[in-house]
Structures are given as structure tokens and as C-alpha cells.
Amino acid sequence: MTETPLDLAHAAMEAAPADDAARLRFYERLADAELFLLLEKDAEGEKISPEVFEVQDQSFVLVFDTDERLAKFVGKPAPYVALSGRVIAQMLAPSGIGLGVNLEVAPSSILIPSDAVSWLVETLDNGPDEVEARVEEFSAPIGLPETLLTSLDAKLSTAIGLARWAYLVGTTYESGARSHMLGFVDAVPDAQGALAKAVSEALTFSGIDAGALDVGFFDSSDPVAAQLAKVGLRFDLPEPEGRAEYVPVAPGSDPAKPPKLR
Q1: Which CATH class is domain 5-125?
Q2: pTM to 2 decimal places
Q3: CATH number of 135-236
């Protein structure tokens, strides 16, 4: 069976148990992945009833990063719902339920206890602050760790149709302060908050103890976009097959409204 991004992140974490950055990358992949949650019966609107298993006096639900792996584990037709890892974590955290991931069917088989699920939700809730500042100069980005660049690339690869490009640049502000900024070009207006949150998560899960990465949004007709293109490191966001619309669909694809447990 082909290795999945979750398999690769899990293998890296297992190979370096003392490496906090590897552990963070695994949890980032888990949060971003589409996971197939095993149900005890079909979903009823926004209400779902996951199968709950008791393991060592703790409750767990089972998720798989492919539907083939779920089918292999169950061995017969079974109801499930496909949700992002972050939505499942948000749903489970208040109930004190853990996650059984790819149990018995993949190298990334792991039990994640409820306290780790709660930690993940708290980490994902750390959103960016909104400030206004005038940039005096854009420059090529320097000194950024490779882990951050890798994390940004992985995050933006999932932002299908939410912007045309993004440029990573160095910035010098009117105050004299220096920083870095990821400037999105032609972002879907309703998706700007989600893109800023994704950048904030990339910074958090890259394992950098202290640091900041600003985010800006520009039209392709804006002269600033041309400045970014001259000096910036470009990220191409995937294009959708059809018309790009940032419209979550039920059940559970809106992270602010996870499904309700029955």
C-alpha cells in the first residue's frame, strides 16, 4: 500500500522520539488530513454516532486516512464520515475521547489519548493577531529555517483555489522593525481568515520557539504584487478543477461548527 503523508510524518516522529519538531509535524499532518471516522450508524443531518471503543480504561474513536484502510480494518461495509482531523479533534475534546489512528492497518497505527487531543485543539485555537503597519521596503527572505518553509509548502498545498500565489518576502517597516511576510495574491475574500490561520499554524507546528510571520493580501493589479514578485519566494497554490468557491458543506466541514455527537 502506498505510504501516505501521515505515514511519513509518523515514521519521522518514531525515528526521533526526542525531536519535538518531528512530533509537531505529525500532529500538523493529522490536523490537516481528511480522516474517515467509523460510525455505528449513518449520520443524521449534523448529528453523528461514532463507534467508541474502550482501551485500557480510556475511550477512543477510530479514524483512518484512507477509506481503503477503514474497509480493511472493518472487513465489511460500515458507515463512516469523512472530516478533517481538526474538526474531529474539536468534536472530541469536550467529551474526553481519544483517537485511534489507522489501527492494525498501517505503519502509522497509533493511539492518541484524550489529553493529546485537547492539546491539539488548544494549539489550533492560537490564531493570528490583526495589526496595521506600513511597509517601507520588501527584500528577499533570509534566515528562515527549512522546517518553516516545508510547513508552509505543505499548508498551502491544501489551500485549493483560495489564492493564485503567495510570496514570502523580508520586510522593513516604517518604524524600522524588520520581519518577514507571506503576501497572498488574488485571495478569495471570504478565505482570507482561513489563509492567515493556516500561516499561523505553519509557524506554530514548525517548532520555532519564538518568531513571527506577517500576512498580507494584494490584488494582482496592485503595484505591491509586482514588488513581491521581484524579490519573494513564490508558492503556487493548487487550482481547483471548477470555479473556486469557499463554501463549506455539511456535515462538519466548517471548523467553527463541528458535528454533534449523539
Answers
A1: alpha beta
A2: 0.72
A3: 3.30.300
